[in-house]
Design brief:
The complex is a heterodimer of chains A (about 425) and B (about 120). Chain A is α/β, with parallel strands linked by helices. Chain A folds into three domains: about 5-125 and about 265-330, 3-Layer(bba) Sandwich (FAD/NAD(P)-binding domain); about 130-260, 3-Layer(bba) Sandwich (FAD/NAD(P)-binding domain); about 340-420, Immunoglobulin-like (Sandwich). Helix content of chain A is about 20%, strand content about 35%. Chain B is an alpha+beta fold. The chains are: A alpha/beta (about 425), B alpha+beta (about 120).
Chain lengths: ~425, ~120
Amino acid sequence: MERLDLVVIGGGPAGMAAALGAWHQGVRNILILDREAQLGGILEQCIHNGFGLHHFKEELTGPEYAARYAKEVADCGICCLLDTMVLDLAEALDGSGDKVVTAVSSKEGYLRIHAKTVVLAMGCRERPRGALNTPGTRPAGIYTAGAAQKFVNIKGYMPGKEVVILGSGDIGLIMARRMTLEGAKVKAVCELMPYSGGLTRNIVQCLEDFGIPLKLSHTVVRIHGRERVEGVTIAAVDGSRKPIPGSEEFIPCDTLLLSVGLIPENELSRAAGVKMDPVTGGAVVDQNRQTSLPGVFACGNVLHVHDLVDYVSEEAELAGQSAAAYLRGEAPCGGTVEVKARDGVRYVVPQRLCKDAGPVSLYFRVGDIYKDVKIVVKCGEKVLLSRPKKKVVPGEMERLPLTAGILSQIDGDVTVCLEQKGAE
Amino acid sequence: MEKRNLTCIVCPMGCSLEVELENGMVRSVTGNSCPRGAEYAKNECTHPTRVLTTTVKVVDGKRPLASVKSAGAIPKELLFEAMKTINCLSVPAPVELGQVLLTDLCGSGIPLVATGSVEKTED
């Protein structure tokens, strides 16, 4: 039976960067598994630009960003099994500490691969209609924004002509522009929350550029049509997100796109017994992105949903390097502390820190829009770091670097919270 | 003096810009974190431009479409005309990333280039 040093599950931006991170630290016996026919993951259908500004210092489209990594993977001679679906991840029964990855492909058949380390890089999925419980009929013409994106950009089909989009996540905004450019009429983008979940630049260049109305604090309360969507009823919602009676408005349309959130795709991780964070929907990890299972690492959107692929690459490279360190027998340092989110901060990744770790970046999201606040990192009552911030929004992930000097002051659990400016 | 508030779209930071205009000329730009923000604000107030990304039909390719972009920003008012031109275009496989598919997109002087590769079907 084959025994590999590293198996990377998923060949998107996270998987490729993780494999390369390990490769550049001398790991050679690597295999990337992906269910698609090519590497690149979701970037293949993200034909718009704006990728790579941090990492490559230039503005690339999704396929271009993916191609740079895919070329490096090929140049290094890292093995990939494509069109291959991973079915199971488990610990080997022989007590070796190895992991067993079970996968199938029409070419190779049933595969059982033993690996000393595994990087989870499966990405995320879109929240579907069923998760929203929107009343109405079940006609054709309801798509998640990402499914519509695949139809338009990869397959060359237009899902409809008159479109309403529910949810203002980035994919929904991008698709509002894409459908408009291809000749569809996008009648409205409805957002349940009083603020958009997408990047401000996308509100400007995808909606305002084309005069598409963004209806904040609005939702779809009914879907009409038997065979095909004939329209939707939208309504304003109150502070507790309940539809306000009398505010209903019927919008005729043949297509409803949903951009209502992304869910890390963690079926494999859960079945393998990886400890999960209920807020991120991803694994609980330490600063090396190691999960609760030794030798199993997680990175990218399967760990927590990112806004920028540049940060995915950065995190994945770290996960790959950590797998390399694990293979060298560099055990994770002893005492760990927990990193907790408090007062306005929804979650923090990593959730665990080793006290004697090198410089570490904390990634987190806030739960609401806050202006003129301080981001404060504390250990007990001791303030480790306080950084003023003009504005923080839920749609944009924050990143906070901690120096080794700051980390050396840690003697207990760490909290990350927001404080009003001026307050001490 | 006229004031305009813009959100910079050059990068995902989305800086809030304030532009002071006099007789249609940009006097000052504030709020930007980098020189590209000032450049964007000037263009946006005088002649707004956008990079266009879309797809073209591929003949005999393993995939039906190749992703493309305008190699630079084109005038905003040309977007729909450019879409019409690009949607009439079909290119034979193979398509290579970076391949120039049109040398001058609708008189903008900007070429249309492939952002992805499409292999030829095997037969």
